[in-house]
Fold each of these.
Amino acid sequence: MKLLFDQNLSPRLPAMLSQEFPGSAHIRSFGMATAPDPAVWTFAAAGGFTVVSKDSDFAQRALLLSHPPKVLWLRIGNCPTADIALLMVKHRPAIVAFLADPALALLALA
């Protein structure tokens, strides 16, 4: 259940969600804070990560290229990091089902 949090999300999220989503990381952990989307995409695919982002570019990429990597698109506006963590915990069953389904490339949460 390795999630890779994009630069538009707090680097605190992997630690906040370590119980629910072990093995997750932020792209800053890999020195990729300013990496372009194609580089993040390639890195995530090679590392077995699912990209978590608010960026619609990753959602479009998932629809066009399928997976890997899968994309978890957070369709929420600006909000506290704690609210994002709560959203992900609330939708954990849907996220687990999404990650287990080999046919799905994109899950949008709001």
Note: The helical segments are 13-16, 37-47, 56-65, 81-90, 92-100.
Amino acid sequence: MFALARFRIDDRSMEPALHAGDYVFVNRWAYRRKAPVAGDLVVLRNPEAAGQFLVKRIMSGDTATGFFVLGDNAFHSRDSRHFGMVPVQLIVGKVRVHAKA
């Protein structure tokens, strides 16, 4: 498995930081030795829909209880306010590079 993976932004949940059609490159190995921290931008497996991915910002949490994640655009985001805390196992990796569409 390669350390970097590319994901396409499909919605408006992270505006103004990321826009639909943008790409992000994710370091899938970023959390092998340390846990995510508040402020990290991450890609995670959608807890509500198998096979889908979300880009969200870590707000709080830890590896024992899970992480509270939010989209930057609250009006267009399904996030921890809807599906609760996210277990660390659902986090794919940390966003490292953002490429505009």
Note: Residues 4-99 form a domain with the Umud Fragment, subunit A fold (CATH 2.10.109.10).
Amino acid sequence: MSLKNLGVREQTLLNLYCQCQFEMSPANFYAKWNVTHAQIAAICGCSESTVDRWFQRSRSSQLPEAIHLRQLAEMDFLWENYEQIPTELRQQVCRSDRRQPS
């Protein structure tokens, strides 16, 4: 496989991506969707106790990392827009051995 050089298009898209503020707070996600802390943990790839700390109002509370905010925004986007995403693009972005919803 040969490496592709970054052209003007790719550099422009890289800059756009780096400036993108695609994020959703756990509180907003939890308020919008009927999910459990365990489900939020699965989306974010962290422990349920970590999610619990995001919702605590004490000294032991913890702020989510930027990657977690992005993962919640991505899941929200998928739940809101999955059927509008062309099948070929879904298969490319959401590769899985499991059957995807149609």
Note: The mean pLDDT is 89.
